[in-house]
Design a protein that fits this description.
alpha/beta; Beta-carbonic Anhydrase, Chain A; globular; 11% strand
Length: 236
């Protein structure tokens, strides 16, 4: 009887332990919310500003884990400028960010397609469009003229922000960088058929930001009528 009682107690202990483990695994498998991811990015940027990096997810084990698949928490659409590496700016590691980089952080069909893949198939809840101080692509759009090669196609995407910025007081480059980010954010929020639908359903959040080269600080731009923009896009 005593042995039976001990076995019963041991069995109950094992079942409780398995229950805790199963619950823990379920929690870890639950995708994070956009709010939680944004808070994580803000914390990472504070670490970057103070140069006190956590260097997460850089181990050999993490590298091997990612051979089975990926589940990045955020999409970062940023400039290709070598001074603005998102993984360092936000102190993130392997598999944490789905990064799309192009001069001037523009959003043509190619960039949008990459973002759609992350949002629709990887269920990434947050997209950050990040411009930066002293952007060369924005500077070229301000300078005008006819640049060589394929640059005119890229500059044409930024030109509307420059035209709008010329109407404002203050530094032209700073205003153009900010307005370019805002235009791209609006473009993504209203992009049919995938992104606008996800934003309208509350499954995707798209925000804008500007990175300061001198301080390392990311300024987060106000979110302007995101739900309204997406709803109107879906209707049309």
């Amino acid at each position: 009887m005593e042995n039976s009682g001990r076995r019963s107690t041991r069995l109950r202990f094992i079942m409780v332990a398995l229950g805790i483990l199963t619950q823990s695994m379920a929690w870890s498998a639950t995708p994070p919310t956009a709010d939680a991811v944004l808070a994580e990015l803000k914390a990472g940027n504070r670490q970057h500003q103070s140069h006190q990096y956590a260097h997460p997810h850089e181990s050999a084990a993490r590298q091997q884990e990612l051979t089975k698949g990926q589940s990045p928490h955020a999409v970062i659409l940023s400039c290709a400028d070598s001074r603005v590496p998102p993984e360092i700016v936000f102190d993130q590691g392997l598999g944490d960010l789905f990064v799309v980089r192009v001069a001037g952080n523009i959003a043509t069909d190619s960039e949008i397609a990459s973002i759609e893949y992350a949002a629709e198939h990887l269920h990434t809840p947050l997209v950050v469009v990040m411009g930066h101080q002293s952007c060369g692509a924005v500077g070229a759009a301000i300078e005008g003229g006819t640049p060589p090669g394929h640059l005119p196609t890229l500059i044409a995407q930024i030109q509307p922000a420059v035209v709008e910025a010329r109407k404002l007081s203050g530094d032209l480059s700073t205003n153009a960088v900010r307005l370019n980010v805002e235009r791209v954010v609006t473009k993504l929020r209203t992009s049919q058929p995938v992104l606008a639908q996800l934003v309208g359903e509350g499954k995707l959040r798209i925000v804008g930001a500007v990175y300061a080269l001198d301080s390392g600080r990311v300024e987060w731009l106000p979110e302007k009528k995101a739900a309204t923009q997406a709803a109107q896009a879906v209707k049309h």
